[in-house]
Amino acid sequence: MPAAPFPRQAAVSAWFEKPGALAMRDWEHRYLSEQLRGFPAQPWLWLGPSASWVPQVAPAGRGLRLHRSSDGLQWQGELRCGLSLPLPAEAVKAIVIQHAAPLELEALLSECERVLMPGGRIWMTVLNRCSPYRAHWQWQGARPPSVGRCQAILRQQGIRSRSLRHYGPLWRQSSEVSGTALPVLRALCVLEAEKRSEAFIGPTAVKVAWRGPVAT
Length: 216
Fold this sequence. Notes:
The protein is α/β, with parallel strands linked by helices. It has three helices and seven strands, in the order H-E-E-E-E-H-E-H-E-E. It has one domain: Rossmann fold, CATH 3.40.50.150. The chain is globular, with a radius of gyration of 21 Å. The relative contact order is 0.17.
């Protein structure tokens, strides 16, 4: 399929290939693969920022691993496409989105809502713009969206946020990826959301009462 044009979409930041970023990637892969194990018989979709960010060993079950091309204009991997994704509606049960580009965030999440089954889950990883760790990536082309914007767009699409967790180092690339100290200042945000379907309103019982004699 031809790729949808995003003329202002910058190439993928070189920061994603730095040692500190790759250490974060390895932690993300372990954590996200563990989440996908909760849907062992259901298809999934994994979207990464570059080729080195999709897992080399596929998670359990059936799925597609895609990554951004170097110019940021296409998705590549087990197939090559743009948006819209060449998948039928409600085709996958779980979606992993690692470090989505802000310029196409609305289009991407709209497409993810289309292909996600009711009751399906989305996990998004986003660099924390409030973390002091941002000094390692903010001058290297990385432009993460805010978590608030991600949550607002998901809500507009009918996808409800379930949790928001913070992981990663505070200051140094070599520090631990996990931890509990000052969680809101850690380098990485992990947003989990669920697609809810509207339930039909059932019939309401009608009470009947006679208020006077009935003529015969």
